[in-house]
Amino acid sequence: MTISYNWLKQYIDIPESAEEIGQVLTSGGLEVEKVIPHETIKGGLKGLVVGEVLTCSKHPNADKLSLTTVDVGNGTVLPIVCGAPNVAAGQKVIVALPGTTVFPTQGEPFTIKSAKIRGEKSEGMICAEDEIGLGQSHAGIIVLNTDTPNGTPAAQFYGVQSDYIIEIGLTPNRADAASHIGVARDVKASKGRKISWPDVDQFRVDNRDLVVPVEVIDVSACPRYSSVTIAGVKVTDSPEWLKQRLTAVGLAPINNVVDVTNFVCHELGQPLHAFDVDRIAGGKVIVRTLPAGTKFVTLDNKERTLTATDLMICNGKEEGMCIAGVFGGLGSGITSETKNVFLESAYFAADSVRRTSINHQLKTDASFRFERGVDPNNTVYALKRAALLIKEIAGGKISSDVQDFYPQPISNREIKVTDKHVDRLIGKQIPRTQVFEILQRLDIQIISETADSYVVSVAPYRVDVIQEADVIEEILRIYGFNNIELSKFARTDYLAEFPVKDIDRYRRSISEMLTGRGFYEIWTNSLTNQAYQTKHNLDFGAEPVEILNKLSEEQGILRQTLLFTGLEVCAYNINRKQRELKLFEFGKTYHKKEKYFEQEKLALYTTGNREPENWQRNAQAVSYHDLAQQVQHVFLKSGIKNASQEIIKDQLFEHGVRFMQGKEEIGKLGKVKSSLLKDFGIKQELFYAELDTALLFKYANPKLVIQEVTKFPEVRRDLSLVIDKKVSYDEIRKLIKQTEGKLITNVVAFDVYEGDKLPEGKKAYALAFTLQDESKTLTDEVIEKTMDRLMKALESQLGAIIRK
Asked: Which range marks the domain in which residue 752 is found?
């Protein structure tokens, strides 16, 4: 979620810098991911000044260029070669001084340097609109009609404002912080300062000439619906201050009425929607569902097919005007012709909005907030705030009373908190007076107390505070995690020797081995989107574990494989030009089969090139065998030396194998199906392995095995053979082990060929054999006999043709 530092300061005193307030928010539980400088004009027009063209003459060596001298202030006159057809002496212009980096409307930024152009010295640039990001025009230079002194910074002339954008990784439970006021509340709680709420006391009904009746039929999906009308508005561009507020948080200004609704949404966290009264057929608003299959055209000009559960804002003819809480309709929105506005501020049930948003794959600022839970008691306040702003910047009169349908008001939650539970969960005794002060700063009221407990009242906008542990968590996050001292009995024993196997040490050893081989560890969410598997009819042999109180369908079930959450990470990186990926994760999968159970897995991912392209060699894409080699290293680290392979048909893979240790399946490996990758926007091949951590750990030996380095040398022999395609490499490896397992210590396939130079249905392997006898030096005679026996076994048992 995006917060403007300047905008935030309108509601609460913040003497701290943007970076410092970011640390305050993070310490209080709102994790600030980054703080980014922001200007209303990209680059902030730094290095650009107002100048005056003193002289202008034709360039002696170019017909379309002019030689000018420009006064840029403080008595400095610069010679500048200009190619604009409209440059002339006496003009006030914008000049980019040497060393200035300019940010054009289109294209990459570039730096102005002193240079000679066709033999004439030029120290700067007289600018056109598009060259400095002020517009699209390149017809000529900007000519100013002003008496502004020469040398005045262009940023000052154009009123460029500097700001900082605070990016918050908002967790789904913190719906209360999805606005500037919401974030201000957290600053208030951390720092004990007061919030200045926008004043709506000036709200007055001017007349009652434009009353639009409202009927709410589906009360469960719409527990509260508030509305008002404003007549006689003039729809135009928004004032500059409003445009700047919206662009700071990444929104494009549309018009003054729509911009107000977006502004209030980001200010108060209450989504609103504005309708053109004259386009509401039947002069009435009805909140209800429509029959499944009904067609509806949304503001993006796309026709959508409604389901029977989609809550709609309808007109008097029971025609849809808006998908409630999600997206407006094309036929009733605000246009430049709008004169009268019907303004909606509602509380829609989170599950209803979430279901509709998922059904139509629509994610909007409104649905983001509604499906997490907005404040049901804030609709009228937000409505009055928006109505006053529209009246201020678009004119018009408030022409109806506020209609407020709220048959069953949602009350505060009362929660009992016990002192001993506070002390136990926090790990420290905090004086009750200090606890009460923290609760009051959080707007959690104490309504009664006894010697060992008290009852608090929590407003419904805090959707995440529903039980005693939640209240204690609120106390702790404001008190400060860093203020909880370590126990005096805390100690470390990481140097101790553990005689038994330890799963944490095992994981660490595997992690260190993989990172040493170029892998990066990832941690992904155990919650995932069921649509990933239902779309492809994937069956994992058990039911998925569904979350009862899920905050979104994207996190509606516990994962049954680590693949999908890992693919999200891969897609995120690939979309940011990081295409060479080697990733691993230790994580759990969850299943329901009569009872619930979980399994820990080790997932490995490889995609992209083996290594970055360089002058010595061309880039080569990773293959199945690259990841298979990494899996073998995991096996060896786990004490597994003889895992067998079986080719399998798997619902996740285009082709793959499973690994067996005896009768136990310890994992599988394969190339991920392109149809699955397509769902994540991944267009390159990706290989995936999923191993059973418990079985790996079962075979792992914690004891250090020391073996004397042999005194006798290794011998290498190469062998080329042609074999049927249906024969797997694992079959070859098993036969080699059975035939000459004593002297052949290692086999490597260093080349595999399939092509038109071989008979149909055949492939060729080039194998390297390592032979070694730990008791004596191998003789040529022994080596030749060994290889001869091996070749005969390959020919007789696998039908191989030895290429000699």
From this structure: 715-803
- Whole-angstrom Cα distance, residue 446 to residue 143? 65
Same domain, 390 and 243: yes
- What's the CATH number where 106 sits? 2.40.50.140
Place of tokens 């804002």: 313
Terminal CA-CA length for the chain: 67
pLDDT at 711: 82
**Which two three-digit tokens encode residue 751?**
């080349």
Number of H helices, E strands in the chain: 20, 41
Helical ranges in 331-431 per DSSP H: 350-360, 365-370, 379-394, 419-426
Both 514 and 650 in a single domain? Answer: yes
Tell me if 786 sits within 8 A of 740, measured CB to CB.
yes
pTM of the entire structure? 0.63
- Counting every residue, how long is the chain? 804
Per residue in 310-351, pLDDT (tens digit) is 999 999 999 999 999 999 999 899 999 999 999 999 999 999
Are 74 and 174 found together in one domain? no
Looking at the fold, whether 83 and 138 belong to one and the same domain comes out as: yes
Q: Is 136 exposed, middle or buried (0-12, 13-18, 19+ CB in 10 A)?
A: exposed
CB atoms under 10 Å from CB of 424, counted, come to 10
The b-or-e profile of 8-45 (16+ CB within 10 A means b, else e) is bbebbebeeebeebbebbebbbbebeebeebbbbebbb
Domain CATH for 611: 3.30.930.10
In a domain, 514, yes or no: yes
Last residue of a domain, one of 347, 380, 405: 405
Domain boundary among 377, 405, 433: 405
Rg of the chain, C-alpha, whole Å? 35
For residues 710 and 773, the answer to whether their CB atoms sit within 8 Å is: no
Q: How confident is the model over 249-270, as pLDDT tens digits?
A: 999 999 999 999 999 999 999 9
Residue 359, Cβ density class (10 Å: 0-12 exposed, 13-18 middle, ≥19 buried): middle
Asked if 650 and 665 count as a contact pair (C-beta separation under 8 A), the reply is no
User: Which bin fits 133, alpha (ψ -120 to 50), beta or left (φ > 0)?
Assistant: left
Q: How far apart are CA 131 and CA 108, in angstroms?
A: 10
Residue 209 has φ and ψ, to the nearest 5°, of -85, -10
- Report the range out of 239-243, 271-275, 496-500 with the highest average pLDDT: 271-275
The rounded Cα 5 to chain-centroid distance in angstroms is 21
Tokens representing 624? 């199945």
Q: Are residues 623 and 521 in the same domain?
A: yes
Phi, psi at 515, each rounded to 5°: -65, -35
Per the listing, tokens 């295409």 go with: 579
Asked if residue 647 belongs to a domain, the reply is yes
Q: How far apart are CA 704 and CA 702, in angstroms?
A: 7
Q: What is the pLDDT of residue 54?
A: 96
444 shares a domain with 588: no
Q: How many domains does the chain have?
A: 6
User: Which of 329, 331, 337, 335 is CA-nearest to residue 312?
Assistant: 329
Q: What is the CATH number of the domain that holds 9?
A: 3.30.56.10
Which tokens is 716 given? 């290498």
d(CA 85, CA 87): 6
Two tokens, residue 736: 């080699």
708 part of a folded domain: no
Q: Are 286 and 316 in contact (CB under 8 A)?
A: yes
Examine residue 490 and state whether it is found in any structural domain, yes or no.
no
